[in-house]
Amino acid sequence: MTQTVSPRRDLRHEDRSAWMPLALVVAAWIALYALNRSLWDWVVHDVVGLEAGSNAGDAVQFFLYDTVKIGLLLVGVIFVVTVLRTFISVERTRELLGGRRLVVGYALAALLGVATPFCSCSAVPVFIGFVAAGVPLGITMTFLIASPLVNEVAVVLVGGSFGWHVAGLYVATGLTIAVVAGVVIGRLGLERWVEPFVYETRLGAAALAGRRRSWRERFSIGRAEVAYILRKIWPFVLAGVGIGAVIHGWAPEDFFARYAGADNPLAVPFAVVLGIPLYSNAAGAIPLVEALHAKGVALGTSLAFMMSIVALSLPEMVLLRRVLRPRLLATFAGVVAVGIIAVGSLLNVVL
Length: 351
What we know:
The chain has 351 residues and is an all-alpha fold. Helix content is 76%, strand content 0%.
């Protein structure tokens, strides 16, 4: 007599068998992260013989330590967030935001922007999808600002580099920028400055997956996303760490303290303007922030520099120009820039 095994039982067995390899990888990740600094201190100073405190010794140690640290953080956070993201989609996000009261909508849009981050290349389709589905313009803008500005990679890297109290302030101020900017844009009634084809777009019914994914499938999606994103961003990470290492090892401390210190009232606006033309992401910008802060740049100024890179980059502006007319695009950039300058100045006072 043939014994049949239910699909649900097979799924539970597959789930259990997927957790053991993951537990071993997590244990190895924790060990590598804990030993990272001491390992490279030993290699650079004891094995290679570069003196601690020397320009070359500090630069090489910074490059190796930060590259591994950021790599480990990226692998961990991308994997975890991707697995969580298998439970939600752009369509589901759009459904959650549509038809909400404005106060609830803005708050929910900001939180969902953090929980469901999309890269800059997704800005246009996400914008079209939200607006065409009836999500108010201001709420859509709040989502688009919060998504790159307070994404999970930025939060984890800020916390790992400067402490979780700083990461908490970064999250709070970043969400505030997203909500306030969205409210301002919504109150100005700028819908007429959206390209007309956006409102003419007709959306089909969202095709949501009906079957339940196993944990093995979710973990496989997470591993694939880690490999895909790392391949895309490693040049930016290495460039950022390399520039940060040069600043860390050879740049004169008094130069940055004089021109970008907390006492200079123009330091934050200058940092924001400087960050706009740079194309990077939080992973590539954090090493620059670390190096600049170590050389005397106020932390608020350094974080404002990073915010302008991830929220106001030129590639993002070019993509958004496809759906926003110049007046609305300029208003969007101006409101966000003012918010970043205000936050950077505030953080210089409280940190």
